[in-house]
Design a protein that fits this description.
The protein is mostly helical and about 240 residues long. It has 8 helices and no strands.
């Protein structure tokens, strides 16, 4: 009887582990699907704007670009609260709005690089970004090391990088400084991607109802989307500087 109970408990634990694994895979797949759709939306908006120069000049250039920049920063700060607020419609609006604003904001940069070598640098940057992001995210998913202690460092480093970028835009206006900050951003956000992936994985619970699980998936997609876009922009900038005359 004792042996039978032991085998029964082992079987229950085994089925529970399988259920958790399947649930976790489904949850992470939903995160990456939302992220991919967000990137696709950004790409569509960016390419549309880049092919309509007068419209792009009106919306994404001149003083309006700072409005878009403020909008991206504002949603970057408030969207997590909106997404995790429990209202599915608000969560979707915050995420897709964030992706749309990024598409408007980076359209002048993409339009510029589309005119260089037939846009080959954009394709190269996208490929390098995908490999970099995928490798970092995979590391964050499989590593057993707890990365939660790095959150403070990542926050302070991100603020420092943002200040450095703004100083270069308004004061230094140095190509070499831009190159070094972009290299720093790529290194930093590779680490942030791994950290975010581990955090998103740890947020999963098999007991969440569908609404909570979807909210977590959108939140995870929002975080990883931001890291992917940031990596892409700065990898493109590095390639552009490296290939300039």
């Amino acid at each position: 009887m004792a042996d039978y109970r032991s085998r029964l408990n082992t079987g229950v634990r085994g089925r529970t582990a399988v259920q958790i694994d399947e649930g976790l895979r489904s949850y992470m797949l939903r995160v990456y699907n939302f992220m991919g759709l967000g990137i696709a939306l950004t790409a569509v908006i960016t390419l549309y704007m880049a092919s309509n120069i007068p419209l792009m000049a009106t919306i994404a250039m001149g003083p309006m670009k700072w409005v878009l920049f403020a909008g991206v920063l504002g949603l970057g700060w408030f969207a997590p609260r909106l997404i995790m607020g429990g209202n599915a419609m608000v969560a979707h609006a915050a995420y897709w709005g964030y992706a749309a604003l990024w598409g408007l904001l980076i359209s002048p940069m993409i339009a510029h690089f589309m005119g260089i070598n037939g846009g080959q640098l954009i394709i190269q940057a996208l490929a390098i970004t995908s490999v970099t992001f995928g490798s970092a995210s995979l590391f964050g998913y499989v590593t057993k090391r707890d990365m939660s202690g790095l959150s403070g460092f990542f926050m302070m480093a991100s603020i420092g990088i943002l200040v450095a970028i703004l100083l270069n835009v308004f004061i230094f206006q140095s190509t070499m400084f831009s190159l070094f900050t972009s290299i720093g951003v790529v290194l930093l956000f590779s680490g942030i991607t791994a950290y975010e992936t581990q955090m998103i994985k740890n947020m999963y619970s098999q007991h969440d109802d569908n609404g909570i699980a979807q909210g977590k998936a959108i939140f995870g997609a929002f975080m990883l989307y931001g890291s992917f876009i940031t990596l892409f922009i700065h990898i493109l900038n590095i390639l552009g500087i490296a290939n300039s005359d």
